[in-house]
Amino acid sequence: MSRRIEDYLEERKILVERALEKFMPRPSGLAGDVIRAMNYTLFAGGKRIRPVLCMAGAEAVGGSADHVLPVACAIELIHSYSLIHDDLPALDDDDFRRGKLTNHKVFGEAIAILAGDGLLTLAFNLMTRYGLEGKVEKKALLRVIDLIASAAGYQGMVGGQVVDISSEGKDQDPTVVEYIHTHKTGALIAASVTAGVILAGGNEEEVKSINTYGQQIGLAFQIADDILNIEGNSSMMGKEIGGDEERGKITYPSVFGITQSKQVQRESIDHAIEALNSFDERAEPLRDLARYIIKRKA
Amino acid sequence: MSRRIEDYLEERKILVERALEKFMPRPSGLAGDVIRAMNYTLFAGGKRIRPVLCMAGAEAVGGSADHVLPVACAIELIHSYSLIHDDLPALDDDDFRRGKLTNHKVFGEAIAILAGDGLLTLAFNLMTRYGLEGKVEKKALLRVIDLIASAAGYQGMVGGQVVDISSEGKDQDPTVVEYIHTHKTGALIAASVTAGVILAGGNEEEVKSINTYGQQIGLAFQIADDILNIEGNSSMMGKEIGGDEERGKITYPSVFGITQSKQVQRESIDHAIEALNSFDERAEPLRDLARYIIKRKA
After folding, report:
1. Which tops the pLDDT comparison, B234 or B246?
2. How many angstroms separate the Cα of B278 from the Cα of each of A254, B86, B272?
3. Which residues pair with B101 in a beta bridge?
């Protein structure tokens, strides 16, 4: 399984990289600095898990990976923007990510804030242009844009980030860590795979099942991140490990311990795969991806 | 004229306030702080010029103000987000706006950054939901969302803000001040009125003319802002005046002098009104608004 999913991930990742290259503006003109900063973090070596999930979602209901690329890439832009803003001195104050200096360390805080704003806004351009080219059913697209905006906004990622920050140094509260995980990471991961299914014309039952799948792997993914922050190898992670504990962050392992966290992770993966019961072999990459998530090392 | 346009502005502003109250979430739950911060700046006493322009654009081609309210309000959310981020210590570092403490002075930098992100994202939710409710032609709506995202993004407002900041203390260059004005303020103002015309089913010629109108009043509006920053009354402006000069900002008056700036302003208003030549009396509020812009005192 491991070899198969790694090949799948690599193939889909190449599609994403090519499409991102095509969609992104080249630095030019008076505002060239902000375009340079936008490209810097977007091409700083991400795993492209979210766009791959979007494509795998489409494929699971008979759609094609190519067809959903503009939305898949838009989601990656949103993810990149969130990394730039999360790393800012006022938020997590991180100097390194994926082994490279963070955006504000290279371009300064002002440009970093604006580069994040630019990526978030451009994500919506990618999606609307895709619709205006007439390549997708407009109602499905509007539904997907709405879903992604909700997953990214105060109802999702922004909300999770607020609670993550405001809970630093506070009591280790299970309700809080669950809120952070489902909102900060889970919401956009679930939206990624669900968007693929909606765009490929999946029925309401498929949309519902895939959303459950997305929420469950999102939880497993964030727990994996938390565990890697404790057990990981800092050269593979590209940043210092142990940062969460130092900051008094509320994480899954800090609230539940590593053993129970790994147990929850395994259960989430089981629930995710269960949610795909009514899907046929075209959902095999999604099943493999779920198992792969808890095995990653960086 | 002055009385008539003031009544018009007041009536439309009430529609906007009511709609914003309806659309905005109430602070609740663990992420209540960010919702509170989003509402704080959105309801800090803006003039609602952009949403009123959107409504007046729709009315100029026979549409109704009510019909375009979700998009008009979305534009105001985007404007509010831009104010929050512009005021941040890493950017303009302003403590007051409209006589009130700026967002980061009340909620802290982290929440202010995230509140801006939340408003920008929610703006897209307002627009997509409007489309999903089936109240507007979906292709027109996608075109409008694309237009607004371009006006807000690196191609528009974000680009203008980058150049505004990076040119502080540099040579007074006419090309630079024109770039800043057309991008930082002009783009979203032009998009506001153009969005109204597109949503109300205006033809391509009307869309083109109204876009020229919007660009011209956008320029006049920003020059008015620059002049008020020199000549204005700080209690009416709700912030300290003279800040631009102190920071070495490149503004219209600093490059061209006040006399020539006022001349350019008058010409812009003439061009704006000329662009409305083929429109009938339903465009009267737009003509009045153009004249009103250079008379405002705060």
Report:
1. B246
2. 68, 38, 12
3. B96
Nearest CA in chain B to A163: B31
Contacts with A, B 134-153, CB within 8 Å? 138-139, 141-143, 145-146, 149-150, 152-153
Chain A residues with CB-CB distance to B131 below 8 A: 139, 142
What are the residue boundaries of the structural domains of chain B, listed by start? 2-293
Cβ separation A111–B163 shorter than 8 A? no
CB atoms inside a 10 Å sphere around CB A296: 14
pLDDT digits (tens, 9 = 90+) for A148-157: 999 999 999 9
Give the range among A48-62, A220-234, B148-162 with minimum mean pLDDT.
Answer: A220-234
Average pLDDT over all residues of chain A: 93
A161 touches chain B (CB under 8 A): yes
Separation in Å, CA B111 to CA A21, A77, A211, B84, B105: 32, 21, 29, 10, 10
pLDDT in tens, B109-134: 999 999 999 999 999 999 999 999 99
What's the pLDDT tens digit per position in A258-271? 999 999 999 999 99
How far apart are alpha carbons B251 and B170 in whole angstroms? 11
Using a cut of 0.80, tell me whether the model's pTM lies above it.
yes
- Token readout for A156 is 């999702």
Mutate which: A78, A137, A162, A175, vs B, most B CBs within 10 A: A162
Cα separations (Å) of A179 from A251, A265, B146?
Answer: 11, 16, 32
Architecture of the domain whose range is B2-293: Orthogonal Bundle (1.10)
Q: Which residue of A has its CA nearest to B33?
A: A162
Task: Judge: A120–B116 Cβ closer than 8 Å, yes or no.
Answer: no
Return the pLDDT at A241.
67
Among the listed residues B44, B41, B43, B65, the one whose alpha carbon sits nearest the alpha carbon of residue B54: B65
The DSSP output letter for A31 is: T
Helices (H), ranges, B155-283: 157-166, 174-180, 187-199, 204-231, 234-237, 243-246, 252-274
Cα–Cα distance measured from residue B33 to residue B95, given in angstroms and rounded to the nearest whole number: 20
Residue B149 has pLDDT above 80, yes or no: yes
Residues of chain A contacting residue B114, judged by C-beta atoms under 8 Å apart: 85, 91, 158, 161-162
Q: Are A250 and A170 in contact (CB under 8 A)?
A: yes
Strand duo B96-97 + B100-101: pairing: antiparallel
